[in-house]
What does this fold into?
Amino acid sequence: MNYLLLPTLILGLIFLSVCGKKGNIADCDTGMAGSYCTEKTPEEKAEAALNAGDVDTAISTLEEALTADPNRYNALPLLSSAYAYKSGFDILNVAKSSFEGGGGGSTFVDTMGAFLPDITDLGTEEYQARLDYMGKAVDALARIPTSYLESNTDIKSSTKFQETLYQSAFSVMYIRKFAVRDASDQSTVTAESLQSMTDEEADIIIDSLVQAAISSPDGEGQAMGAQVEALLAEVDAQEGESRRDRLIAYLGQQEGQSSPSP
It folds into this structure.
């Protein structure tokens, strides 16, 4: 099974092959479908590009389709997944990871952080580009109206899971903007490095976590949402006049207590 496409399958994004009345994508490519084969939809073209490892073509194909028809909501979950892949998020392995139990926000940040790129390896510019892609993944899902999901219950749960996953990843990835190399050459967020965080950046992080908790569906998404809620509760319990102060106090409290970032 192709590892680029696997994350979308894990998330339940099943795209029907609508290549003519009786043909399918494989038949169209090989000429086996005969007169029943019609031109592939943009979603099918994007899926084929992902199978071939060409994420950029998948993204451009879906973006063009959505520019032509902004109401093509069925394309947005696949586009979101492609953006998340471009961010460097290890979707395959995080989907296998358990978010049950473990207790507290620290464990959640460590667990999610293990599947994200490292700013100390990439440098500020490249890391920001990756973070922007994760932001696009979140924004793509936000474009799907609630009314559409309510009338398409077959994709509602998987789309909500995507939203919880990507909002959580975006928040932790944003926190890791402040990571530095410690004396052991490990990437870590320190109380000192967090001082450059602005009120606006703290709001972005916390608001994204709040949305992740709100979006969580049943199953694995619910377990992840519960850990996000625990993290938010611990942040709220810190002393500080502003959200920034409480977030920095919480993250600074974790310094030296959690496993270093990979």
In short: The chain has 14 helices and two strands. Residues 1-86 form one domain. Residues 1-23, 101-106, 258-262 have pLDDT under 50 and may be disordered.
